[in-house]
Task: inverse folding
């Protein structure tokens, strides 16, 4: 054999071995499925360069990580739930005296915690004191649910879950990256408070999930199914049902968007429209079950001047019929169209008032009549302007309800 073919075969063999090693490294990493698939394709399409990227962009598999890199609360560590919080300059805070369990699961008296933390010497100390209280609550909730639950913590997130340490670590990394991406995508609108971690509760079954979130619904009535929920009740946190991480990714992106927007107290349609569009932008839109034309016909058949008031008030997002999915879809379309002029839209979003569904802000910041605009999307000829006086729930009561409850539809 001449030297040239021998050199070629040697290089080919080296490339195959290198790519095989790199592929194995990526597949054993704690990254999410979609990123793994893209990197594996890159490894085999880009000779040597793909393997080089895998070497430096993907962490080694979890079973080869040194013990020092384990997240707090992992590796057999099971910190006890504190009975008392102590912090320099503050009186001790008796945790158990401020816990209740209306559904058998502990809830903190968040007003009492805020009052205690508010006596700290600086805003930074107040944030630290609140973080201590939230961590204490999570540890008591862990003990109430069962010994299979563990608290995993990183710089950006606290995760209470039954997940194995490598999976929890991958989820924590995904949450941290998603917070950064949401802040970029919703520049000037989304905000994560400095020093405040996202709190994620992963529950092992739908039964436990609905038992937990049921505490935050008003008594009576029927409610739509959800794949995740952001709860802004003292300690802002979001809840999901345990599933494959690639399935949970869109839910996390959606609920994190709600978390980043919660300080604005947006009208529900605007809040959900931003969350759905951000979810699609970060994780990819799911293949629609119906064509746009078919969805448009469903909108035409459902909406009228009376029902659109449920859209403006937010009540239609909690319907258990076709109105639930159509509300999310209409909000998605409206926000997608309005956000094309991002500077003007960001001014609108940060000014929109829940009490009038954002009508006044739309007129002053976007120069549009909100009712006419939404009506045009569905090709309606009726008057679709928000009429808060016609809403069955008074604006003040409604604002309190939606401030802590925002469900993710399936």
Result:
């Amino acid at each position: 054999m001449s030297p040239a073919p021998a050199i070629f075969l040697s290089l080919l063999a080296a490339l195959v071995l290198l790519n095989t090693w790199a592929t194995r490294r990526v597949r054993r990493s704690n990254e999410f499925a979609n990123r793994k698939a893209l990197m594996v394709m890159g490894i085999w399409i880009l000779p040597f360069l793909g393997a080089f990227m895998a070497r430096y962009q993907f962490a080694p598999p979890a079973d080869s990580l040194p013990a020092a890199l384990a997240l707090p609360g992992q590796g057999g560590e099971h910190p006890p739930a504190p009975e008392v919080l102590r912090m320099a300059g503050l009186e001790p805070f008796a945790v158990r005296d401020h816990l209740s369990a209306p559904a058998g699961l502990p809830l903190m008296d968040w007003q009492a915690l805020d009052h205690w933390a508010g006596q700290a010497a600086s805003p930074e100390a107040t944030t630290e004191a609140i973080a201590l209280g939230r961590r204490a609550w999570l540890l008591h909730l862990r003990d109430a649910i069962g010994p299979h639950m563990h608290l995993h913590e990183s710089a950006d997130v606290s995760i209470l879950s039954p997940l194995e340490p490598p999976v929890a670590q991958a989820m924590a990394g995904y949450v941290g990256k998603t917070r950064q991406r949401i802040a970029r995508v919703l520049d000037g609108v989304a905000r994560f408070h400095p020093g405040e971690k996202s709190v994620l509760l992963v529950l092992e079954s739908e039964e436990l999930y609905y038992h937990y979130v049921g505490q935050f619904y008003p008594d009576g009535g029927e409610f739509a199914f959800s794949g995740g929920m952001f709860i802004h009740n003292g300690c802002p946190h979001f809840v999901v049902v345990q599933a494959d991480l690639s399935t949970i990714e869109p839910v996390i992106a959606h609920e994190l968007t709600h978390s980043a927007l919660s300080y604005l107290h947006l009208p529900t349609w605007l809040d959900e429209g931003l969350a759905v569009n951000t979810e699609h932008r970060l994780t990819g839109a799911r293949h629609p079950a119906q064509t746009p034309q078919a969805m448009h016909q469903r909108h035409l058949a459902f909406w009228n001047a009376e029902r659109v008031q449920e859209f403006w008030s937010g009540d239609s997002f909690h319907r258990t019929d076709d109105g639930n999915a159509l509300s999310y879809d209409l909000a998605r379309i409206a926000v997608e169209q309005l956000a094309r002029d991002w500077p003007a839209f960001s001014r609108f979003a940060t000014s929109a008032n829940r009490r009038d569904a954002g009508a006044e802000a739309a007129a002053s910041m976007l120069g549009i009549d909100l009712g006419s605009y939404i009506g045009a999307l569905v090709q309606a000829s009726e008057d679709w302007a928000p009429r808060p006086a016609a809403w069955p729930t008074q604006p003040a009561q409604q604002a309190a309800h939606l401030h802590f409850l925002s469900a993710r539809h399936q």
Notes: The first strand starts at residue 84 and ends at 85. The chain has a mean pLDDT of 83.
